[in-house]
Amino acid sequence: MQETQTPGAAVAIVKGDSVIFLEGFGVRDTKSQTPVDVHTVFRIGSLSKGFAGILTGILVQDGMMEWNQTVQDCYPGFVLRDEKQASRMQIRHLLSHTTGLPYHAFTNLIEMGYDTRRIVENYFPRAPLSGREGEVFSYQNAAFCVIEPVMEASAHQTYDELLSGRIFKPAHMVDASCNFQSMQQSENKCLPHFWTGNYFNPEPISNLYYNSAAAGGVN
């Protein structure tokens, strides 16, 4: 942290089923100099994708979904330029970034505030495919988030409810959430910072990516 002038960080070490080290370092805001503690909430960005994978595994374990289940089986509105490829697409392809869509397809629309269904149903059919499903790795945000309506149809709960009920609460993650309102209301949160060339300066938390929680909306 000293070498990079990183404002703040939180460290947790888990061994087996026990937390053996938990501590906050630095500050959550370089202007207020308020210290980071063990309850300080950070936006974790694309590390949110790991939660989506674990949550899918829990639902598979509980018999609500299958890794090789087709996306259209749960979400008939899923479409691609190649209708046959869309019909073959499986849940595992969404989570492994192997849908065949080009790199970061329609991430710009997420950043414009579009929801997943609007992007999928109105824009996916326009995108050229860079390969067959399962053959080409190409990092995604919008396509990854298709797992949300798939889960919601399978479990009859919202993605937010599933994350909370299946992961956050059982793991006693009392400060965790995946929506903008919760982050805004938290009095103990770390602000994002940008490098000015000489030091890190705090900026407000954006509401971007809470419309794509599976890809980047976990706090």
Oligomeric composition of the shown chains: single chain
Got a strand count? Answer: 4
Label the structural class: alpha+beta
Mean residue pLDDT = 96
The rounded Rg comes to 19 Å
Shape: globular
User: What percentage of amino acids are in beta strands?
Assistant: 5-15%
**Strand and helix order:** EEHHHHHHHHHEEH
Low-confidence stretches: none
Total DSSP helices: 10
> Gap between N and C termini, in Å?
22 Å
Tell me the major beta sheet: 2 strands, antiparallel
Q: In words, what does this structure look like?
A:
- With 219 residues, this protein is of the alpha+beta class.
- 32% of the residues lie in helices and 11% in strands.
- The strands form two sheets. A two-stranded antiparallel sheet has the order 1-2. The chain has a two-stranded antiparallel ribbon with strand order 3-4.
- Strand 3 and strand 4 form a beta hairpin.
- The longest helix has 14 residues.
- The two termini are 22 Å apart.
